[in-house]
Amino acid sequence: MVKKTLVAAAAITLSTFALSSCGNGSEADSGSDSSGNDDGTITMGFAQVGAESGWRTANTKSIQETAEAEGIELKFNDAQGKQENQIQAIRSYIQQKVDVIAFSPVVETGFDAVLQEAKAAGIPVILTDRAVDVEDPSLYETFLGSDFVLEGERAGDWLVENAKDSDVNGDGTINVVQLEGTTGAAPAIDRAEGFASKISADDSIEVTASQTGEFTRDGGKQVMESFLQSDDSIDVVFAHNDDMGLGAIEAIEAAGLEPGKDIKIITIDAVKDGMTALADGKINFIVECNPLLGPQLMDLAKKVLDGEEVPERVVTDEGTFTQEQAIEALPQRQY
Ligand code: GZL
Ligand code: ZN
Q: Were 190 and a residue from 142, 148, 202, 324 both cysteine, which residue would form a disulfide, CB within 3.0 to 4.6 Å?
Protein backbone atom coordinates (compact mmCIF):
# COMPACT_ATOMS: atom_id res chain seq x y z
CA MET A 1 0.00 0.00 0.00
CA VAL A 2 1.66 3.17 -1.13
CA LYS A 3 1.14 5.73 1.56
CA LYS A 4 1.84 9.29 0.54
CA THR A 5 4.62 10.13 2.92
CA LEU A 6 6.06 13.46 3.74
CA VAL A 7 8.47 14.00 0.86
CA ALA A 8 11.06 16.16 2.60
CA ALA A 9 12.43 17.52 -0.66
CA ALA A 10 8.99 18.40 -1.90
CA ALA A 11 7.57 19.46 1.42
CA ILE A 12 7.30 23.19 1.29
CA THR A 13 6.81 24.82 4.71
CA LEU A 14 3.84 27.01 4.13
CA SER A 15 4.92 30.17 5.86
CA THR A 16 8.47 30.40 4.57
CA PHE A 17 8.08 29.79 0.84
CA ALA A 18 5.58 31.13 -1.61
CA LEU A 19 4.37 28.12 -3.54
CA SER A 20 6.95 27.88 -6.28
CA SER A 21 5.41 26.94 -9.55
CA CYS A 22 7.83 25.59 -12.06
CA GLY A 23 5.47 26.29 -14.94
CA ASN A 24 5.72 24.03 -17.94
CA GLY A 25 5.70 27.03 -20.25
CA SER A 26 2.08 27.50 -19.43
CA GLU A 27 2.84 31.14 -18.55
CA ALA A 28 2.07 31.98 -22.18
CA ASP A 29 -1.50 30.85 -21.77
CA SER A 30 -1.67 31.33 -18.01
CA GLY A 31 -4.31 33.92 -18.65
CA SER A 32 -6.37 31.22 -20.35
CA ASP A 33 -9.64 30.22 -18.81
CA SER A 34 -8.64 27.39 -16.49
CA SER A 35 -12.11 26.11 -15.86
CA GLY A 36 -15.02 24.52 -17.61
CA ASN A 37 -17.14 27.64 -17.15
CA ASP A 38 -17.28 29.97 -20.07
CA ASP A 39 -17.07 33.02 -17.79
CA GLY A 40 -13.73 31.78 -16.46
CA THR A 41 -14.84 31.21 -12.87
CA ILE A 42 -13.56 28.10 -11.14
CA THR A 43 -16.08 25.75 -9.55
CA MET A 44 -14.76 23.74 -6.59
CA GLY A 45 -16.58 20.90 -4.86
CA PHE A 46 -15.47 20.63 -1.22
CA ALA A 47 -16.41 17.59 0.96
CA GLN A 48 -15.82 18.55 4.60
CA VAL A 49 -15.50 16.05 7.50
CA GLY A 50 -18.23 17.63 9.63
CA ALA A 51 -18.51 20.27 12.35
CA GLU A 52 -17.12 18.23 15.25
CA SER A 53 -14.72 20.74 16.77
CA GLY A 54 -13.61 24.34 17.03
CA TRP A 55 -10.79 23.48 14.66
CA ARG A 56 -13.22 22.25 12.02
CA THR A 57 -15.36 25.37 12.33
CA ALA A 58 -12.32 27.59 11.78
CA ASN A 59 -11.19 25.40 8.86
CA THR A 60 -14.59 25.63 7.14
CA LYS A 61 -14.71 29.41 7.67
CA SER A 62 -11.26 29.84 6.12
CA ILE A 63 -12.22 27.80 3.03
CA GLN A 64 -15.60 29.50 2.51
CA GLU A 65 -14.29 33.04 3.08
CA THR A 66 -11.30 32.57 0.78
CA ALA A 67 -13.44 31.10 -2.03
CA GLU A 68 -15.79 34.08 -1.70
CA ALA A 69 -12.91 36.57 -1.73
CA GLU A 70 -11.30 34.93 -4.78
CA GLY A 71 -14.48 34.54 -6.82
CA ILE A 72 -14.33 30.76 -6.76
CA GLU A 73 -17.75 29.11 -6.89
CA LEU A 74 -17.74 26.73 -3.89
CA LYS A 75 -20.08 23.76 -3.58
CA PHE A 76 -19.77 22.67 0.07
CA ASN A 77 -20.89 19.50 1.87
CA ASP A 78 -20.70 18.65 5.59
CA ALA A 79 -20.48 14.85 5.86
CA GLN A 80 -21.35 14.83 9.60
CA GLY A 81 -18.35 12.60 10.19
CA LYS A 82 -19.61 9.82 7.89
CA GLN A 83 -17.36 8.47 5.13
CA GLU A 84 -20.33 7.34 3.03
CA ASN A 85 -21.61 10.93 2.98
CA GLN A 86 -18.22 12.19 1.84
CA ILE A 87 -18.06 9.63 -0.97
CA GLN A 88 -21.60 10.57 -2.02
CA ALA A 89 -20.68 14.28 -2.08
CA ILE A 90 -17.60 13.60 -4.24
CA ARG A 91 -19.74 11.53 -6.63
CA SER A 92 -22.23 14.38 -6.92
CA TYR A 93 -19.40 16.84 -7.70
CA ILE A 94 -18.24 14.48 -10.46
CA GLN A 95 -21.76 14.42 -11.90
CA GLN A 96 -21.94 18.21 -11.70
CA LYS A 97 -18.63 18.35 -13.62
CA VAL A 98 -16.94 20.73 -11.17
CA ASP A 99 -13.48 21.94 -12.18
CA VAL A 100 -11.72 20.69 -9.07
CA ILE A 101 -12.58 18.60 -6.00
CA ALA A 102 -11.03 19.15 -2.57
CA PHE A 103 -11.73 17.25 0.65
CA SER A 104 -10.46 16.27 4.10
CA PRO A 105 -10.84 12.46 4.28
CA VAL A 106 -12.60 11.56 7.52
CA VAL A 107 -10.55 8.33 7.66
CA GLU A 108 -7.45 7.19 5.73
CA THR A 109 -8.84 4.23 3.78
CA GLY A 110 -11.80 3.46 1.50
CA PHE A 111 -11.54 6.33 -1.01
CA ASP A 112 -9.71 4.55 -3.87
CA ALA A 113 -12.82 3.81 -5.94
CA VAL A 114 -14.36 7.28 -5.84
CA LEU A 115 -10.97 8.90 -6.53
CA GLN A 116 -10.60 6.58 -9.56
CA GLU A 117 -13.98 7.90 -10.76
CA ALA A 118 -12.82 11.51 -10.37
CA LYS A 119 -9.62 10.69 -12.28
CA ALA A 120 -11.61 8.99 -15.06
CA ALA A 121 -13.79 12.11 -15.27
CA GLY A 122 -10.63 14.24 -15.61
CA ILE A 123 -11.37 16.18 -12.40
CA PRO A 124 -8.26 16.92 -10.29
CA VAL A 125 -8.48 16.24 -6.53
CA ILE A 126 -6.67 18.16 -3.77
CA LEU A 127 -6.43 16.70 -0.24
CA THR A 128 -6.57 19.15 2.66
CA ASP A 129 -5.98 18.55 6.38
CA ARG A 130 -6.12 14.73 6.49
CA ALA A 131 -4.31 12.23 4.22
CA VAL A 132 -5.50 9.04 2.53
CA ASP A 133 -3.83 5.66 2.10
CA VAL A 134 -4.18 4.87 -1.62
CA GLU A 135 -2.48 2.37 -3.95
CA ASP A 136 -2.18 4.88 -6.77
CA PRO A 137 -0.58 8.20 -5.73
CA SER A 138 -1.78 9.83 -8.95
CA LEU A 139 -5.32 9.81 -7.54
CA TYR A 140 -4.74 13.26 -6.07
CA GLU A 141 -2.59 16.23 -7.07
CA THR A 142 -1.26 17.33 -3.69
CA PHE A 143 -1.83 17.23 0.07
CA LEU A 144 -2.05 20.47 2.06
CA GLY A 145 -1.96 20.11 5.83
CA SER A 146 -0.10 19.43 9.03
CA ASP A 147 2.50 16.84 9.94
CA PHE A 148 0.46 15.05 12.61
CA VAL A 149 3.33 12.75 13.66
CA LEU A 150 5.38 15.87 14.45
CA GLU A 151 2.44 17.25 16.46
CA GLY A 152 2.35 14.05 18.55
CA GLU A 153 6.16 14.17 18.96
CA ARG A 154 5.96 17.76 20.25
CA ALA A 155 3.38 16.70 22.84
CA GLY A 156 5.57 13.75 23.89
CA ASP A 157 8.70 15.90 24.04
CA TRP A 158 7.01 18.34 26.42
CA LEU A 159 5.97 15.51 28.75
CA VAL A 160 9.50 14.03 28.79
CA GLU A 161 10.96 17.48 29.50
CA ASN A 162 8.40 18.07 32.27
CA ALA A 163 8.31 14.51 33.60
CA LYS A 164 9.36 15.29 37.14
CA ASP A 165 6.50 17.77 37.64
CA SER A 166 4.04 15.42 35.94
CA ASP A 167 4.10 12.58 38.46
CA VAL A 168 1.38 14.43 40.38
CA ASN A 169 0.54 11.60 42.75
CA GLY A 170 4.22 10.95 43.45
CA ASP A 171 4.04 7.20 42.93
CA GLY A 172 7.12 7.15 40.71
CA THR A 173 5.27 6.53 37.46
CA ILE A 174 3.69 9.10 35.15
CA ASN A 175 0.32 7.52 34.41
CA VAL A 176 -1.06 8.91 31.14
CA VAL A 177 -4.56 8.40 29.76
CA GLN A 178 -5.03 9.18 26.05
CA LEU A 179 -8.17 10.63 24.41
CA GLU A 180 -7.83 9.53 20.77
CA GLY A 181 -9.32 11.24 17.74
CA THR A 182 -11.66 9.46 15.33
CA THR A 183 -10.62 5.83 14.84
CA GLY A 184 -8.84 5.43 11.49
CA ALA A 185 -8.36 9.16 10.94
CA ALA A 186 -4.85 10.27 9.96
CA PRO A 187 -4.50 12.77 12.86
CA ALA A 188 -5.52 10.12 15.40
CA ILE A 189 -3.15 7.47 14.01
CA ASP A 190 -0.20 9.81 13.55
CA ARG A 191 -0.51 11.85 16.76
CA ALA A 192 -0.60 8.63 18.82
CA GLU A 193 2.44 7.34 16.90
CA GLY A 194 4.45 10.54 17.40
CA PHE A 195 3.57 10.79 21.11
CA ALA A 196 4.43 7.13 21.80
CA SER A 197 7.77 7.42 19.98
CA LYS A 198 8.88 10.30 22.20
CA ILE A 199 7.67 9.12 25.63
CA SER A 200 9.50 5.82 25.07
CA ALA A 201 12.61 7.83 26.06
CA ASP A 202 11.44 7.76 29.70
CA ASP A 203 10.18 4.41 31.00
CA SER A 204 8.49 6.05 33.99
CA ILE A 205 5.92 7.45 31.50
CA GLU A 206 3.19 4.95 30.61
CA VAL A 207 -0.07 5.22 28.66
CA THR A 208 -2.36 3.09 30.83
CA ALA A 209 -5.61 3.71 28.94
CA SER A 210 -6.49 4.99 25.47
CA GLN A 211 -9.89 5.42 23.83
CA THR A 212 -11.51 7.51 21.11
CA GLY A 213 -13.54 10.56 22.11
CA GLU A 214 -14.31 11.24 18.38
CA PHE A 215 -12.62 14.67 18.52
CA THR A 216 -15.69 16.07 20.30
CA ARG A 217 -16.05 17.82 23.69
CA ASP A 218 -18.82 15.43 24.74
CA GLY A 219 -16.80 12.41 23.66
CA GLY A 220 -13.81 13.59 25.66
CA LYS A 221 -15.96 14.20 28.73
CA GLN A 222 -17.63 10.77 28.64
CA VAL A 223 -14.37 8.85 28.11
CA MET A 224 -12.63 10.87 30.85
CA GLU A 225 -15.50 10.10 33.27
CA SER A 226 -14.98 6.38 32.62
CA PHE A 227 -11.20 6.72 33.05
CA LEU A 228 -11.67 8.51 36.38
CA GLN A 229 -14.12 5.85 37.60
CA SER A 230 -11.65 3.05 36.94
CA ASP A 231 -8.34 4.70 37.87
CA ASP A 232 -7.58 7.02 40.81
CA SER A 233 -3.90 7.44 39.94
CA ILE A 234 -4.10 9.38 36.67
CA ASP A 235 -1.34 12.00 36.39
CA VAL A 236 -1.71 13.23 32.78
CA VAL A 237 -4.31 13.41 29.99
CA PHE A 238 -3.05 13.53 26.38
CA ALA A 239 -5.99 14.58 24.19
CA HIS A 240 -5.65 14.53 20.37
CA ASN A 241 -7.54 17.84 20.18
CA ASP A 242 -8.55 20.79 22.37
CA ASP A 243 -12.24 19.90 22.29
CA MET A 244 -11.73 16.49 23.93
CA GLY A 245 -9.37 18.17 26.42
CA LEU A 246 -12.08 20.68 27.29
CA GLY A 247 -14.52 17.81 27.83
CA ALA A 248 -11.96 16.13 30.09
CA ILE A 249 -11.71 19.36 32.12
CA GLU A 250 -15.47 19.17 32.79
CA ALA A 251 -15.16 15.55 33.97
CA ILE A 252 -12.11 16.30 36.14
CA GLU A 253 -13.84 19.26 37.81
CA ALA A 254 -17.02 17.20 38.35
CA ALA A 255 -14.81 14.67 40.17
CA GLY A 256 -13.68 17.47 42.52
CA LEU A 257 -10.15 17.64 41.05
CA GLU A 258 -8.29 20.66 39.65
CA PRO A 259 -7.42 20.30 35.94
CA GLY A 260 -3.88 21.51 35.15
CA LYS A 261 -2.82 20.83 38.74
CA ASP A 262 -4.22 17.51 40.09
CA ILE A 263 -4.14 16.12 36.54
CA LYS A 264 -1.94 17.69 33.82
CA ILE A 265 -3.50 18.12 30.37
CA ILE A 266 -1.76 18.24 26.97
CA THR A 267 -3.83 18.90 23.84
CA ILE A 268 -3.44 19.69 20.12
CA ASP A 269 -5.09 22.40 17.98
CA ALA A 270 -4.75 25.76 19.85
CA VAL A 271 -8.26 27.04 19.10
CA LYS A 272 -9.54 29.96 21.19
CA ASP A 273 -11.36 27.89 23.85
CA GLY A 274 -8.29 25.68 24.27
CA MET A 275 -5.93 28.65 24.48
CA THR A 276 -8.24 30.29 27.03
CA ALA A 277 -8.15 27.16 29.23
CA LEU A 278 -4.35 27.09 28.80
CA ALA A 279 -4.07 30.75 29.86
CA ASP A 280 -6.33 29.97 32.83
CA GLY A 281 -4.01 27.13 33.91
CA LYS A 282 -6.52 24.31 33.26
CA ILE A 283 -4.43 22.94 30.35
CA ASN A 284 -0.62 22.71 30.65
CA PHE A 285 0.61 22.62 27.01
CA ILE A 286 -0.95 22.91 23.55
CA VAL A 287 0.56 21.91 20.20
CA GLU A 288 -0.79 24.10 17.39
CA CYS A 289 -2.57 22.64 14.34
CA ASN A 290 -3.32 25.35 11.79
CA PRO A 291 -6.89 25.24 10.33
CA LEU A 292 -6.53 28.35 8.14
CA LEU A 293 -5.94 26.40 4.92
CA GLY A 294 -8.28 28.44 2.68
CA PRO A 295 -5.73 30.73 1.00
CA GLN A 296 -3.25 27.96 0.17
CA LEU A 297 -6.03 25.65 -1.02
CA MET A 298 -7.41 28.18 -3.50
CA ASP A 299 -3.89 29.02 -4.68
CA LEU A 300 -3.13 25.33 -5.26
CA ALA A 301 -6.45 24.86 -7.11
CA LYS A 302 -5.65 27.69 -9.52
CA LYS A 303 -2.15 26.34 -10.16
CA VAL A 304 -3.47 22.81 -10.76
CA LEU A 305 -6.10 24.07 -13.18
CA ASP A 306 -3.50 26.17 -14.99
CA GLY A 307 -1.43 23.01 -15.46
CA GLU A 308 1.34 24.32 -13.22
CA GLU A 309 3.56 22.03 -11.18
CA VAL A 310 2.58 21.90 -7.49
CA PRO A 311 4.53 20.25 -4.65
CA GLU A 312 3.42 16.72 -3.77
CA ARG A 313 2.87 17.93 -0.23
CA VAL A 314 2.54 21.36 1.39
CA VAL A 315 3.08 21.18 5.15
CA THR A 316 1.57 23.91 7.33
CA ASP A 317 3.87 25.76 9.70
CA GLU A 318 2.82 25.48 13.36
CA GLY A 319 4.14 26.03 16.85
CA THR A 320 3.43 25.15 20.47
CA PHE A 321 2.16 27.10 23.46
CA THR A 322 2.88 27.09 27.20
CA GLN A 323 0.54 28.81 29.66
CA GLU A 324 2.61 32.01 29.59
CA GLN A 325 2.73 32.02 25.78
CA ALA A 326 -1.06 31.57 25.59
CA ILE A 327 -1.62 34.67 27.71
CA GLU A 328 0.63 36.58 25.28
CA ALA A 329 -0.87 35.14 22.08
CA LEU A 330 -4.60 35.10 22.90
CA PRO A 331 -5.40 38.71 21.89
CA GLN A 332 -4.02 38.17 18.38
CA ARG A 333 -5.58 34.74 17.74
CA GLN A 334 -7.92 34.68 14.71
CA TYR A 335 -9.90 31.58 15.79
C1 GZL B 1 -6.43 18.05 12.31
C2 GZL B 1 -7.91 17.84 12.13
C3 GZL B 1 -8.50 17.40 13.42
C4 GZL B 1 -8.38 18.45 14.52
C5 GZL B 1 -9.65 18.19 15.26
O6 GZL B 1 -5.88 18.58 11.15
O7 GZL B 1 -8.17 16.87 11.15
O8 GZL B 1 -9.90 17.17 13.22
O9 GZL B 1 -7.23 18.30 15.32
C10 GZL B 1 -10.61 18.03 14.11
O11 GZL B 1 -10.04 19.23 16.12
O12 GZL B 1 -11.79 17.49 14.54
ZN1 ZN C 1 2.18 9.01 39.19
A: 148
